[in-house]
Design brief:
Number of strands: 2
Distance between the termini: 39 Å
Number of helices: 8
Structural class: mainly alpha
Radius of gyration: 27 Å
Strand content: 5-15%
Order of helices and strands: HHHHHHEEHH
Shape: elongated
Largest sheet: 2 strands, antiparallel
Length: about 220
């Protein structure tokens, strides 16, 4: 015995229109996929990449000989910290010349001023210590990972119906990604599992179209 079936054309037309709309506008799916993809790229970098060459022997030897504490074996603040603070101060001075003082710039100046004062105090304390008892922290080789700053530069944007993933480090990112001069290739764009990522995107698109057909709207 056959069951009665009633076709509601209004519902069918609504579903067709919803599917057509999703096909013409994949941006909601691309936005969801972009969050997934950028996370995968960042995690791959943090894990040390796939088949990336290690640090050069000379670089590794230097990091083995260098600690991570604020004060070096010589009793002075490490040069990279001084350089970073000096760079921040120069940028602030330039902004103040162009824009004048603001509440934000005043607070930043006070923070930098306090940091420089702490450097002086730390060096003064270090001079009173026995160098042999100075705590130099862990070796840089223990803490410094390959491209450790690169995950924070990974971005994604949608132009039209196209998803673009890139590194905000621009030329520096390109040098690492493709290799240049003495810098070996450590590719992070696209990620090594891009095939699996495209399968994930296909699943999202299929799910979105199914949801559009069933409910009359996608994501």
């Amino acid at each position: 015995m056959s069951e009665p079936f009633e076709l509601q054309w209004g519902d069918v037309r609504r579903s067709i229109n919803a599917v057509q709309e999703r096909l013409e506008n994949p941006k909601p799916v691309l936005r969801e996929f972009s969050r997934h993809l950028t996370k995968e790229i960042r995690e791959n970098i943090k894990a040390g990449g796939s088949g990336w060459p290690p640090y050069a022997a000379s670089t590794l030897a230097r990091m083995e000989a260098t600690g991570t504490s604020q004060i070096s074996l010589r009793g002075t603040v490490r040069a990279d910290r001084v350089k970073k603070t000096a760079s921040a101060m120069r940028k602030l001075e330039k902004r103040v010349r162009n824009e004048g003082w603001t509440d934000k710039s005043k607070k930043q100046y006070e923070r930098l001023k306090k940091r420089l004062a702490n450097y002086r105090k730390a060096e003064a304390r270090a001079k009173k210590q026995d160098p042999a008892k100075r705590n130099l922290g862990k070796r840089q080789s223990e803490k410094r990972k390959l491209l450790q700053g690169m995950p924070g530069t990974i971005r994604a944007k949608i132009k039209g119906n196209t998803l673009l993933t890139y590194s905000a480090a621009d030329e520096v990112g390109a040098v690492h990604n493709y290799g240049e001069g003495k810098e070996p290739k450590r590719e992070f764009l696209p990620p090594p599992n891009m095939g699996a990522q495209l399968d994930h995107l296909a699943g999202l698109l299929e799910s979105d179209l199914g949801q559009a057909w069933e409910t009359g709207k996608g994501r």
